[in-house]
Amino acid sequence: MSVEFVIQYAFVLAAVVAVLWKWPGIHYLPAALFAHGYAEHLCQIAMNGLHLWTYPVRIVPMVEMSVPANDIVIPIMTMFWLRYMPTSFRGKVYWIIGWSIGLTVPEYFAERYTGLIRYHNGYDWYVTLILWIMTWIIFYAFHSWFWKRWHFEQTSSI
Predict the structure, then answer these.
(1) How many domains does the chain have?
(2) What is the predicted pLDDT for the residue at 9?
(3) What is the pLDDT of residue 22?
(4) Does residue 153 form part of some domain?
(5) Degrees (nearest 5) of the Cα angle 49, 124, 14?
(6) pLDDT (tens digit per residue) in 15-55
(7) Rounded to an integer, what is the distance from CA 127 to the centroid of its chain?
(8) What is each CA distance from 137 to 92, 99, 116, 118, 132, in whole angstroms?
């Protein structure tokens, strides 16, 4: 088994163990489902429309995208990210930047030293950082919008 498969299985195992060990709650499930759809669509556009990257080594070879990342790891990370996000504005800014840097560093090494992901026009770490910052803001905005709307509909129907 290659190192790429070991890495993918390790991330899936870590995500599943984390969610079983410390379930963040049903309150975060809509955001996790949104994160899954967002990741799938973003990868489809980047891979097939813009031809920015590919996943040469995949657990599920029939699927062009990274199943562990898009279907398991990113939705679970989103639930934990929202659950433990600070309440202050400054805390949220640091939280977004910290998580974005924390995900950019492993992607840098994955691109440079493994066959997990290949960028066709070269890899620029700051593009990944900006993409993660925008992604976390979008996930937070969806989560806030969903629960404000749900709360409004519940209170207005009484």
Answers:
(1) 1
(2) 77
(3) 75
(4) no
(5) 85
(6) 778 777 777 677 888 999 999 999 989 888 888 888 888 88
(7) 15
(8) 10, 12, 26, 26, 9
122: alpha, beta or left? (left if phi > 0; alpha if psi -120 to 50): left
Helices 3-21 + 74-83 axis angle, to 10: 40
pLDDT of residue 3: 76
Ranges of residues in the chain with a pLDDT under 50 are none
Q: How many CB atoms lie within 10 A of CB 62?
A: 6
In a domain, 158, yes or no: no
CA dist 104 → 40, 79, 124 (Å): 19, 19, 10
> Phi then psi for 2, rounded to 5 degrees?
-75, 165
CA 12 – CA 87 distance, rounded (Å)? 29
Find the domain containing 55 and state its range.
3-143
| Residue-level pLDDT at 21 | 75
